[in-house]
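Input record, target 12 of the design panel.
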């Protein structure tokens, strides 16, 4: 029997973090003809994860141009993927992850070519197309095209069933991002993080993490979030927040405007994945609008304030380890106080709402049974 061909699609850093363990597991099985395909949506950030995993792209195209609209990006993804298909043997299937523009429009192109679409991290929903934007609509589109749906949680499974998808094609497997997260935690703590934490503790600071980058928060949203944070810091001078940010990060302008020169806020250079994981591990609490950080913090038992209007990751809320503040500065302040007082012994935290680190193997088992 000819090995079935599976192309694993990556375009952004979070996609690569969650697809890399799936790709490696498929390759190790040696039962599939596996290719890793890059869409170039965030190529520089993508490369940093590929390097950590020692992976190389088999095919790639460049979909990103500075200043382009989402429509421009969408059309470039379809065109770029179509060009690869024209010049290679059409695969039996592709695996797309999550809800990026790359994932959505690669899935559309694949579907139009008669290629089976498998969806990793299927079924996440807020049922608000503007929050998150454009991710909510992207993942709904993928769900309508996919043959197999790999849901991270029971809630995600139920969402898909309620939307009319046959449950025999939905599999609750956990989140493959937790495979990467637990793998990264076992790596030695990078010296840059050791230095940051040592310096903080020597100065009697409690280290915390901020990640804030979502496009829908730009402007007044970030201003309100950081105003609430400032109120917390003004009353809690022993906390220090580290904010990894690119020079053009959407939140950077707001945090500089609200804080100016503040000893309790440290804007640091972007971190590679392993460094970010270890900084999160040392953090007392987290203020974030990142989906992946929500999952990782809940895995650690780290109290989290989610600074976006809605979250699709309700399991952390149900466990009492996270709260959604939106852009309400009073809620940001109150929930940061809650997080500071929500003292959890991470060593005793046993809940793993988003997976135990074996999601990639589960996906491979399902694909093996599907094809063979």
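The sequence produced for target 12 reads:
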């Amino acid at each position: 029997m000819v090995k079935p061909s599976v192309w694993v699609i990556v375009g952004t850093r979070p996609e690569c973090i969650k697809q890399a363990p799936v790709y490696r597991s498929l390759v190790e099985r040696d039962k599939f003809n596996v290719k890793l395909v890059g869409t170039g949506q965030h190529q520089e950030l993508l490369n940093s994860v590929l390097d950590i995993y020692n992976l190389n792209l088999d095919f790639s195209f460049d979909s990103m141009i500075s200043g382009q609209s989402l429509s421009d990006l969408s059309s470039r993804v379809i065109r770029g993927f179509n060009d690869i298909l024209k010049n290679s043997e059409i695969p039996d299937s592709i695996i797309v992850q999550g809800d990026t523009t790359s994932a959505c429009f690669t899935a559309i192109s694949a579907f139009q070519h008669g290629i089976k679409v498998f969806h990793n991290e299927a079924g996440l929903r807020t049922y608000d197309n503007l929050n998150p934007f454009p991710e909510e609509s992207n993942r709904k589109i993928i769900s309508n095209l996919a043959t197999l749906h790999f849901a991270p949680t029971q809630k995600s499974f139920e969402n898909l069933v309620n939307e009319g998808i046959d449950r025999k094609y939905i599999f609750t497997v956990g989140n493959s991002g937790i495979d990467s997260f637990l793998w990264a935690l076992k790596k030695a703590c990078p010296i840059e993080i050791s230095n940051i934490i040592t310096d903080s503790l020597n100065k009697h600071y409690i280290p915390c993490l901020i990640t804030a980058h979502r496009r829908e928060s730009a402007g007044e949203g970030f201003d309100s979030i950081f105003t609430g944070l400032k109120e917390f810091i003004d009353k809690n001078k022993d906390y220090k927040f580290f904010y990894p940010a690119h020079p053009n990060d959407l939140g950077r302008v707001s945090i500089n405007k609200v804080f100016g020169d503040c000893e309790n806020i440290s804007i640091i250079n972007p971190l590679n994945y392993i460094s970010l994981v270890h900084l999160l591990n040392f953090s007392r609490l987290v203020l974030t609008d990142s989906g992946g950080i929500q999952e990782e913090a809940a895995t650690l038992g780290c109290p989290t304030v989610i600074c976006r209007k809605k979250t699709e990751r309700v399991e952390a809320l149900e466990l009492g380890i996270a709260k959604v503040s939106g852009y309400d500065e009073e809620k940001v302040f109150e929930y940061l106080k809650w997080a500071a007082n929500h003292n959890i012994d991470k060593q005793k935290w046993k809940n793993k709402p988003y997976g135990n680190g074996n999601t990639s193997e589960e996906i491979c088992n399902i694909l093996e049974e599907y094809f063979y």
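The domain at 5-175+355-371 is CATH 3.40.50.2000 (Rossmann fold).
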